């Protein structure tokens, strides 16, 4: 118990007890309640069919909320009465969407359903009659599904490059679809960025060049969606489509206010397994995007726009700002510790100066829109960004997930979810100080010459884990026996007071509890006091937290509930739990966006 006082009156709560990993329930603090805001299969357009688990079709799925919602934002209009929900649909779980089959025609039909179930969604919202909570609007003007078949425009220096040309797009300018959309961020001009993360698994490919190998370690001949068996662009063994994987792994930008707009992929921001991107406007007016490449021993990046943000109201300013991510320079982080290497023992025990901390530099990969890496062209730097970062000696990190600047302070919070290879494939260092890093950690990074500068200071804010069973957790100095156990930080968010909120993905298999959402005050006596706000059902991960503390509302995406079960042997029945109410599906788990409110 005790507090949440730092979150203010709007969201004061007593931390929940951790929830055992076998419990199939959505758990909130005393005094709060929850409801699904929109679920997999909910109809989005006027004539969309109602969800029918037993009679799924590509046509129906294209008009319904997609699968495995991840990044989430709830963007209110100026009137505060209406708004839009924007979410990513990262991937599908065939094993709990369908019963197993080997029938080729049925597999192909399912493949087309998977194409429509992934991507992104924009869903219009309205306040409920009680004035506070939101409901989704079927048939809303801005409702949109973006799928694996939606056309995207490539922008920036690598658009039109030979490295992104295919038989179907000889100019290298337009890509069909988006893949592996994980985290994201809403820009100051109201668009939404989404990271294309694990795109590699959707292709059969030879992976025989250094550039390809850096994104897909070994050759593959088949995929879980089966697209490569009938859609030639997913068979990258062929010369016609050898470059198709190069057209994924980007930051994409969509305008949720205009359902007819063409979404864009920004090559200036580099190609990697993008977790997401979060933008802040620096004091000099340049916009800076922070980005993680979520792979063991990969890197932390930032992008600095060439042009300056226009803060005026109106269409011409917005039009200008919408192009800021098309031109600019890309940097990768190098961390230097200030303690002797011998004091970084791999156990997580603090060095003698009492902190894992030090300084760092942002090493340019491009300068003035040209390559800053000897021996690589600008196209190569942007398409094979990992090779460029390898070449300049960036610091290999413990799987950088969400990286987000605190809008109150400009300090940047880096979620490093875990890294089984730390201390083996990559050496220990002060920024990644735990051998086999099982529980993950969070770095607080302070820019020392402005948001767009090239030097920073840093310290580890949290070394995650369960203090009851692990002696070397660290909570910014807060007593470890007074915090909630936390493991595998993934997404971060801030409330209106600048408190950090962290959602997790991986707690069940590391500390034995369901994943959840946690408040972490950053200032004052409660700095580092991790307090669990909610827990998601069995086998789900908690994503995309949105904290509207002034409204007393918290939103999360519940991704892949019950994913280790099967049809007929469900591990989760979230969120309908056997209900026979209209629209409910009693016998299948449904990834959903949940709204938590004061009861
Ligand atoms: Fe899709 Fe890095 O989590
Ligand atoms: Ca130190
Ligand atoms: Ca994630
Ligand atoms: Ca994750």
From TrEMBL:
<dbReference type="InterPro" id="IPR006311">
    <property type="entry name" value="TAT_signal"/>
</dbReference>
<protein>
    <recommendedName>
        <fullName>Phosphatase</fullName>
    </recommendedName>
</protein>
<dbReference type="InterPro" id="IPR008557">
    <property type="entry name" value="PhoX"/>
</dbReference>
<dbReference type="Pfam" id="PF05787">
    <property type="entry name" value="PhoX"/>
</dbReference>
């Amino acid at each position: 118990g005790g507090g949440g006082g730092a979150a203010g009156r709007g969201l004061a709560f007593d931390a929940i007890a951790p929830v055992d990993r076998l419990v199939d329930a959505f758990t909130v603090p005393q005094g709060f309640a929850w409801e699904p805001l929109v679920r997999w299969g909910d109809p989005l357009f006027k004539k969309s069919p109602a969800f029918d688990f037993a009679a799924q079709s590509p046509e129906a799925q294209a008009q319904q909320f997609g699968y495995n919602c991840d990044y989430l934002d709830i963007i209110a209009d100026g009137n505060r009465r209406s708004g839009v929900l924007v979410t990513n649909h990262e991937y599908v779980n065939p094993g709990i969407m369908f019963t197993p089959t080997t029938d080729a025609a049925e597999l192909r039909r399912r493949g087309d359903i998977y194409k429509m179930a992934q991507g992104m969604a924009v869903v219009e919202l309205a306040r409920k009659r009680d004035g506070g909570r939101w409901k989704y609007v079927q048939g809303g003007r801005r409702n949109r599904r973006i799928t694996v078949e939606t056309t995207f425009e490539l922008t920036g220096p690598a658009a039109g490059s030979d490295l992104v040309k295919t038989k179907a797009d000889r100019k290298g300018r337009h890509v069909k679809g988006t893949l592996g959309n994980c985290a994201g961020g809403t820009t100051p001009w109201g668009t939404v960025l989404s990271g294309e993360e694990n795109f590699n698994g959707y292709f059969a490919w030879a992976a025989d060049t250094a550039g390809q190998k850096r994104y897909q370690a070994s050759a593959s001949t088949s995929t879980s969606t089966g697209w490569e068996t009938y859609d030639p662009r997913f068979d990258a063994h062929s010369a016609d489509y050898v470059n198709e994987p190069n057209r994924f792994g980007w930051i994409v930008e969509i305008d949720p206010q205009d359902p007819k707009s063409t979404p864009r992929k920004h090559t200036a921001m580099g190609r990697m397994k993008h977790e997401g991107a979060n933008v802040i406007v620096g004091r000099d007016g340049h916009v800076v995007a922070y980005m993680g490449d979520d792979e063991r021993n990969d890197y932390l990046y930032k992008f600095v726009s060439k042009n300056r943000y226009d803060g005026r109201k109106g269409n011409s300013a917005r039009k200008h700002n919408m192009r800021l991510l098309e031109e600019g320079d890309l940097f990768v982080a190098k961390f230097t510790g200030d303690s002797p290497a011998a004091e970084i023992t791999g156990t997580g025990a603090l060095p003698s100066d009492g902190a894992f901390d030090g300084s760092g530099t942002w090493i340019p990969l491009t300068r003035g829109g040209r390559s800053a890496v000897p021996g690589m062209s600008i196209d190569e730097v942007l398409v094979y960004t990992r090779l460029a970062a390898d070449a300049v000696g960036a610091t290999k990190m413990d799987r950088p997930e969400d990286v987000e600047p605190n809008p109150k302070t400009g300090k940047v919070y880096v979620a490093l979810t875990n890294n089984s290879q730390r201390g083996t494939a990559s050496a220990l260092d002060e920024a990644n100080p735990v051998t086999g890093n099982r529980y993950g950690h969070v770095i607080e990074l302070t820019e020392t010459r402005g948001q767009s500068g090239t030097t920073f200071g840093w310290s580890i804010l949290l070394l995650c884990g369960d203090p009851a069973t692990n002696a070397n957790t660290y909570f910014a100095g807060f007593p470890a026996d007074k915090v909630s156990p936390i493991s595998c930080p993934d997404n971060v968010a801030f409330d209106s007071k600048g408190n950090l909120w962290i959602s997790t993905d991986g707690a069940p298999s590391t500390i034995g509890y369901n994943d959840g959402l946690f408040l972490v005050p950053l200032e004052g006596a409660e700095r580092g006091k991790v307090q669990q706000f909610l827990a998601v059902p069995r086998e789900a991960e908690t994503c995309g937290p949105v904290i509207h503390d002034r409204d007393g509302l918290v939103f999360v995406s519940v991704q892949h509930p019950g994913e280790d079960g099967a049809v007929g042997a469900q591990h989760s029945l979230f969120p309908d739990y056997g209900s026979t109410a209209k629209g409910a599906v009693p016998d299948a788990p449904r990834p959903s966006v949940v709204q938590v409110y004061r009861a």
